[in-house]
Specification:
Helix content: 25-40%
Number of helices: 10
Largest sheet: 5 strands, mixed
CATH topology of the largest domain: Nucleotidyltransferase, domain 5
Shape: globular
Strand order of the largest sheet: 3-2-1-4-7
Low-confidence stretches: none
CATH superfamily of the largest domain: ATPase, nucleotide binding domain
Number of strands: 12
CATH class of the largest domain: Alpha Beta
Strand content: 15-25%
Bound molecules: zinc ion
Mean pLDDT: 95
Order of helices and strands: EEEHEEEHEHEEEHHHHHEHEH
CATH architecture of the largest domain: 2-Layer Sandwich
Number of domains: 2
Distance between the termini: 15 Å
Radius of gyration: 20 Å
């Protein structure tokens, strides 16, 4: 079997691998723990070993690969295939990741930002099939995003395009590690929702069923806040709704700029399913101008946690297929 494409998605917890054939049908998957504490070299070795392992498992050879796509967090120099910085993994500064993988495996390789890869995954195989313009927002530690226009990833002129998580949605709002205030990801990421709930409980002494979880575990997460709001907790409802309101502001601004077919929501918070998409649509429709009817669809990711790795293979498919 020839013309296979391998995707590798480097995450802070897991490294995911997917093997796709030339019709973009997945034929094998593998996941390995990311050896974060052991540093960059060990992480890259794990990526190389995992690639070999999956190929072996599927009974094919490296020579059957037409290309490898690697999805990575952090700012990337696309020209040289270098990861410029990755705060979570020690030593991952100015690492020529593309060439390290390509040289070790002897297969042409392309490096892509993980949020862009996830958007490409949804565009090729998921909730954005056949859309001329699609935007994907990944709600996790931050808000990652990818914008695909007529099959191409929007990078901008300085490789800094589609940073939707740092659109300012509240002037003089919450401080963001990027140096601005009021960025979307300070309101609508899984991490910021948990931080806000915690602040209301600890600093403002608000009553909530979440205080008990906080006291027991030392922290709370977005999934617990979603569960608490389902169970009728007023503070959880308020925190969740605020996140959905600011997310809707972000989506409205994106709709005004790009008029996309679809905005796709993924990442950890999207596991809330209807509890994410319904309030988001409600706020979006309320904020929508009256000049035209809302036509952009807001939908959940179809590929879930595999969007990035499928997209990484998809980027390789787009780049190297003969
Ligand atoms: Zn920011």
């Amino acid at each position: 079997m020839a013309n296979l494409f391998l995707g590798i998605d480097l995450g802070g917890t897991l490294i995911k691998f997917a093997l796709l054939d030339d019709t973009l049908t997945p034929i094998g998957h593998l996941e390995l723990d990311t050896p974060v504490q052991k540093g960059a070299d060990e992480v890259i070795d794990t990526m190389i070993c995992g690639a070999r392992e999956l190929i072996h498992q599927q009974g094919v050879a490296l020579s059957n690969l037409s290309g490898i796509g690697v999805a990575s967090p952090g700012p990337i120099d696309f020209e040289t295939g270098t990861v410029i910085a990755m705060p979570n993994i020690p030593g991952f500064n100015n690492v020529p990741l593309r060439n390290r993988i390509a040289d070790a495996l002897g297969v042409e390789t392309i490096l892509e930002n993980d949020a862009n890869a996830a958007a490409m995954g949804e565009a090729l195989c998921g909730a954005g099939k056949n859309a001329d313009i699609l935007i994907m927002l990944t709600l996790g530690t931050g808000v990652g995003s990818g914008i695909i226009i007529n099959g191409k990833i929007l990078r901008g002129c300085h490789s800094a395009g589609a940073e939707t998580g740092h659109m300012i949605v509240e002037p003089n709002g919450e401080p963001c590690p990027c140096g601005q205030r009021g960025c979307l990801e300070r309101y609508s990421s899984a991490a910021s929702v948990a931080q806000y709930a915690r602040r209301l409980i600890e600093k403002e002494g608000r009553q909530s069923t979440l205080s008990e979880i906080l006291r027991k575990n030392g922290n709370i997460d977005a999934a617990q806040i979603n569960q608490a709001q389902i169970d009728g907790d007023e503070l959880a409802k308020e925190v969740w709704d605020r996140a959905m309101y600011f997310l809707a502001i972000g989506c409205i601004n994106l709709a005004r700029l790009f008029d996309p077919e679809v905005i796709i929501l993924g990442g950890g918070m999207a596991k809330a399913g209807e509890n994410l998409i319904n309030p988001l649509r409600r706020h979006f429709n309320k904020l929508h101008w009256i000049l035209t009817e809302p036509k952009t669809s807001l939908v959940l990711s179809a590929l879930g946690s595999k969007a990035g790795v499928i997209g990484a293979a998809g980027v390789a498919w787009k780049t190297f297929r003969k």
